[in-house]
Structures
1.
Amino acid sequence: MTDSHSASRPTTPELQREIDRIYAVQLDHVTKDFGGGVLGLDDVNLGFRTGRISVLLGLSGSGKSTLLRHINGLHTPASGRVRVLGQDMDKLRRSELKSVRRDIGVIFQSFNLVGPMSVLENVCAGALGSLRGPRITLMMYPKAVRRGALEKLDRVGLADRAYQRADTLSGGQQQRVAIARALMQQPKVLLADEPVASLDPVSAHDVIDLLRQISAEDDLTVIASLHQVELAIDFADRIIGLRTGQVVLDRATAGLSAEETSQIYSSVSGTDIAEVGSSDDANIARAQMPKTGTEAAARVGAYR
Ligand SMILES: Nc1ncnc2c1ncn2[C@@H]1O[C@H](COP(=O)(O)OP(=O)(O)OP(=O)(O)O)[C@@H](O)[C@H]1O
Ligand SMILES: [Mg+2]
């Protein structure tokens, strides 16, 4: 089976188990029809290997976020099958879906931290999915959660900022905190929708390096959307190009020549430009920062 397998459906449970071991995420003939002639995804067949990093590239509107939202069970396909960590997403009961989602961490372009709360509290909030009841203050989290959060902060190099207000950190630091928060779920799959689009190039590289390191250490399957081809090549094991909901490119990044790199630009965009799309300004992320825990939860909920 290749990474872009066209799903000849497995016939035995043993074979399916083996496929599930190799591919953390599988999309078989997935089509999403938004109506009005808009196909968010158009017969997408992809298998995302466990522990690998894949980057989705494509112009605005090509279907990157739509694909990520299918993996998280937020969208259901009009036809086809989405299988995540050995489960068919459309066959799960609510509690089962919740359990699969706990294994899927998500990070966003706009970080979605609660600005006035401390960094440590923001990270602790990553454990909320496995705790009962609301936690209004830091001390309401169990000690083990607080200790775990500090460990995660140490991992992303920010333990010394634990008690600082989140909105006083730089954009790159805030995204590191968001990564630490996602790690509180001990995810097996991490979805990152344009995780560095709001960052300057140096901070973007730092965040990407951190994600690479975590993926390698934790055998974490990472699926990210990016706009920068060069960054994608540095970061990913594999690049998937989308155009109008279709996979127009799917290849490993190892050993790409300059000519092949320029072909990526043209395959994905349909033109010969040197940058696919453009990145936003860091201020946008700050302006979009939720002001309350409820607002942040609502936004995170858009992916949960
Ligand atoms: N909820 C929705 N209802 C209707 N159409 C939608 C919806 N979500 C996405 N679409 C459409 O599906 C297509 C793919 O959108 P998507 O948001 O996945 O693109 P994208 O590649 O993530 O773009 P960007 O780089 O701007 O984030 C677009 O034409 C978009 O307008
Ligand atoms: Mg998007």
Note: The domain at 13-301 is CATH 3.40.50.300 (Rossmann fold).
2.
Amino acid sequence: MSTPLEHGAGLTGRGDAETRRRGDSREHGAGVSAAGGAGVSARPSESPDPVASLLEALPYLSRYVGKTVVVKVGGSVGDEGTVLEDLAWLRRVGVNPVVVHGGGALISHWLAQLGRETRFVEGRRYTDAETLDVVRMVLVGLVNNDLVAGLNALGVKAVGLSGVDGALLQARLRDERLGLVGDVVAVDLAPVEALLQAGYVVVVAPVGSGPGGQPLNINADSAAGALARALRAEKFILFTDVPGVLDRQGNLISQISVGQVRGLMESGVLRGGMIPKVEACVEALETVPRAHIIDGRVPHALLRELFTDQGVGTMIAHEG
Ligand SMILES: Nc1ncnc2c1ncn2[C@@H]1O[C@H](COP(=O)(O)OP(=O)(O)OP(=O)(O)O)[C@@H](O)[C@H]1O
Ligand SMILES: [Mg+2]
């Protein structure tokens, strides 16, 4: 399960990632591999043989074109590096990206501006009524709108929704210790499907519609997992700001089976914000073949994960 890679090796991590991806490729008949995994580089110096890079990418491309890929990004467009560019490329080549975003850091910033404290319980934010107002203003008003504007500026049309729109994410209260935090209990895909059909990139803010129409704060990873599962996405990818899931020594764990997740939780290896992320992967895997937690600081991490033999984080799948 754990690999001997040094901490930070996920930034290059080629040896292990290729082993992992070779297995992935064989299964789908995509056995063509180019040296260096440089297929997404725009710089010729990193791409000695462009045809080899193309041959590496094409089997993956043919797997994803026409399919839905759910991508969870953090709250800040800037912090996610090249993710908007990568999402725009996905749409241009005919993949249907559905984006779910967080916004944790910005919410904490605005709560602090208002003199309000933030408290987390097992990676989820305690949310009273006033905190929920700030959560909605930041997620729906700022972050969602910024992502949509960023994608539009790249020439792909995007539409933002919150989980309240069209009752996309229907939720119930999760736990009284958390206040107005929801768990998704039902997903109405009609608004997302209509927009995908019309060619839009869909960007979803993780606010759900609770009992009696009460909006509820939903952890973005959990919202993304529920959506990926409902959409039967071809792939579920979560960005984070670390190399992936790390073991106790800080080494990247490049692959986890669903069966290993409980042990990791119980041993305390998964803490804080990583808990809802891994739980979201497990939920998505009920219908999605593979889920990945990847390092958003790696340039073009999304294209690398989807279209090259390289992996840039932790893959979670049913088998070990
Ligand atoms: N075993 C682990 N491996 C890697 N990261 C871990 C682990 N346990 C806890 N973490 C923490 O989880 C954090 C990621 O979750 P976090 O909720 O902070 O960010 P996010 O979900 O990417 O952003 P947002 O909540 O705004 O959507 C990492 O920065 C790391 O500090
Ligand atoms: Mg989080």
Note: The pocket of magnesium ion (ligand 2) is lined by residues 102, 104, 221, 273 (CB under 6 Å).
